[in-house]
Design the sequence.
């Protein structure tokens, strides 16, 4: 079995480099198939424990990450691990915070910041990145 996601699996975003990252909403059941090997969870409070390695990034609903430096490091970790592992990014509904994080991953992968939201809305969910401040966050996000 592949160490990364199947490209057609629910919620999987293919970045331009070919890296695959799954986005999902934690309020929905875990999709069938293999479990993630690493998860980044974007929530206002600590999530329930999972059976795989994970990182919690404090990020209240409809807002931005509480610690922008920690967010940048977490996004880099997800991007790097996605080369050879099944990684997922998830928030409550799988749209706003998850979409924003996926758009930042697209920027890390070489998508210009001004095109990253459109990229994620086209390839992940048309409802991704819900608020004006989330769009601005992506626009101001740089590779490093």
Sequence:
């Amino acid at each position: 079995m592949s160490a990364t996601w199947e490209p057609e699996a629910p919620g999987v975003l293919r970045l331009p480099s070919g890296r695959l990252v799954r986005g999902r909403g934690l309020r929905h059941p875990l999709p069938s198939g293999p479990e993630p090997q690493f998860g980044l969870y974007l929530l206002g409070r600590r999530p329930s424990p999972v059976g795989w390695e994970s990182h919690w990034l404090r990020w209240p609903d409809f807002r931005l990450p509480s610690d922008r430096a920690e967010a940048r490091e977490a996004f880099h970790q997800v991007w790097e691990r996605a080369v050879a592992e099944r990684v997922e990014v998830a928030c409550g509904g799988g749209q706003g915070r998850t979409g924003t994080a996926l758009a930042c991953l697209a920027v890390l992968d070489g998508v210009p910041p001004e095109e990253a939201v459109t990229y994620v809305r086209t390839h992940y969910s048309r409802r991704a990145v819900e608020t004006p401040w989330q769009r601005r966050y992506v626009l101001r996000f740089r590779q490093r």
Q: What stands out?
A: The chain has a mean pLDDT of 96. The CA atoms of residues 102 and 120 lie 7 Å apart. The radius of gyration is 13 Å. Residues 68-81 form the longest helix (14 residues).
